[in-house]
Design goal:
- There is one protein chain.
- Helix 3 (47-55) runs antiparallel to helix 14 (310-318) and helix 9 (213-223) runs parallel beside helix 16.
- Strands 5, 6, 7, 10, 11, 12 and 14 form a 7-stranded mixed sheet that branches. This protein has a 5-stranded mixed sheet with strand order 2-1-3-13-4.
- It is α/β, with parallel strands linked by helices.
- The chain has 16 helices and 14 strands.
- It has helices spanning 3-20, 41-44, 47-55, 67-72, 86-98, 119-127, 149-157, 189-201, 213-223, 233-240, 245-248, 256-270, 297-308, 310-318, 334-341, 360-371; strands at residues 31-37, 58-64, 80-82, 104-106, 109-118, 131-133, 144-147, 181-183, 228-231, 252-255, 277-282, 287-288, 292-294, 322-323.
- The protein folds into 2 domains: 3-106 and 289-319, D-Maltodextrin-Binding Protein, domain 2, CATH 3.40.190; 112-287 and 354-371, D-Maltodextrin-Binding Protein, domain 2, CATH 3.40.190.
Length: 379
């Protein structure tokens, strides 16, 4: 006579699980996968992504480090790593191939490198002809500007100060030098990518990218004074969106998806866009290619999910990433539709001005010189 209440209790619990979308999870094994990554942790820390993965009986635990640090540190205890760009990924896959260890690559989405700043600084740059509103994104309070990288780096090289660019006319007092702040180049992919962009722009009469070790060393020493670095990768964008950011780090190197996610969240909370924070798109662009590297079969299953599962692809797009199709090209105009529906201006990324990257060993040598950091694989 005590069975019916007990059965009713069990059925009530199952009903509650069904409503929450986690039906039968207590009766099936849920595995926890260990991952190591930098900025792409934003994707895995998203509540909706975690909910979708739980439906597939997967939980994620993230260790957050810079992308290059992922490549040069021990990863034997992890199921997957997710460096933000190809150079770090190449280091990892080459090392594992040399030891005949499991490594499968998945490429679910991309995100361009951008310089995030504030409207007053963008206007000061525009008044000097160093930046201009991105075509087709609105003339009144545009969120996106095209940055003349050569002119910008010239001002950095000349040690020009913001006060000399007339920043006071836009309500800001800042006598600091014009700089773009990056995370530590020894650990962060975004900093390494920006280094390559600077090296490409300031090549003088040399090759687009260094072709020899000697040329790489010479180029690295040439551009070292143009690089401002130091903040941990996780803190650069957080500093930018903090109330203190405008005075502490007026221009920072970031990823497009970070800014688009921020604007979508800001819009949801305040019902308006943050028109004070804007993006500078370098006229020579490099679209970073984050690579999910599975280190075992469980990690490979996760890689398949984030690359092919419709819900996870949709969520990646909602978080500002440009998702890829099976051929590795940006898939249609999903991001454009998503932003348009939410009345967020759509940035344009041109394909005809892609920046070339140095070969891996040459880029590593340049990183070591610019950052005074040990070469990959050093203790």
């Amino acid at each position: 006579m005590f069975c019916l209440p007990a059965l009713a209790f069990v059925l009530t619990g199952v009903t509650a699980l069904a409503v929450s979308g986690n039906t039968l999870l207590p009766f099936e094994r849920v595995i926890t996968l260990e991952g190591k990554m930098a900025s792409k942790r934003d994707f895995f820390e998203d509540g909706e992504v975690r909910r979708i993965l739980l439906k597939h009986h997967i939980r994620i635990h993230i260790t957050s480090v810079g992308s290059r640090e992922v490549a040069v540190r021990d990863i034997s205890s992890y199921d997957f790593v997710f460096p933000s760009g190809q150079p770090a990924a190449d280091l990892i896959t080459a090392e594992r191939a040399s030891r005949n260890e499991f490594a499968t690559i998945h490429r679910p989405f991309v995100s361009p490198i951008v310089l995030a700043t504030y409207r007053a600084y963008a206007r000061a740059l525009a008044a000097e002809g160093i930046a201009k509103p991105q075509p087709g994104t609105g003339r009144n309070d545009p969120l996106y500007y095209v940055l003349d990288m050569r002119a910008f780096l010239d001002r950095i090289g000349d040690r020009t100060r913001w006060s000399e660019l007339g920043i006071a006319k836009y309500g800001i007092t800042n006598n600091n030098r014009v700089l773009a702040q990056t995370p530590d180049v020894c650990t962060a992919n975004s900093a390494g990518t920006y280094l390559a962009l600077v090296a490409f722009t300031r090549r003088g009469d040399g090759n687009e990218v260094p072709a020899t070790v000697l040329e790489a060393e010479r180029r690295a020493r040439q551009i070292k004074p143009l690089m401002e670095q130091g903040l941990p990768a996780a803190d650069v964008f957080r500093t930018y969106i903090s109330p203190e950011g405008k005075g502490v780090a007026p221009v920072v190197v970031a990823y497009e998806h970070q800014y688009l996610t921020y604007q979508a969240q800001y819009l949801a909370e305040s019902r308006k866009l943050d028109t004070d924070r804007v993006l500078l798109y370098p006229d020579s662009q490099f679209v970073t290619q984050p690579q999910f590297i599975a280190l075992n079969k469980d990690g490979d299953r996760l890689g398949e999910l984030i690359t092919n599962d419709p819900e996870l692809r949709q969520r990646a797009m909602e978080l500002g990433f440009r998702i890829l199709d099976p051929t590795g090209k940006v898939a249609g105009d999903q991001l454009t539709r998503f932003l348009t529906e939410r009345r967020i201006p759509v940035p344009s990324v041109r394909d005809e001005t892609r920046t070339a990257m140095p070969r891996l060993r040459l880029l590593e040598r340049m990183i070591s010189i610019v950052g005074d950091c040990p070469a990959a694989g050093s203790p």
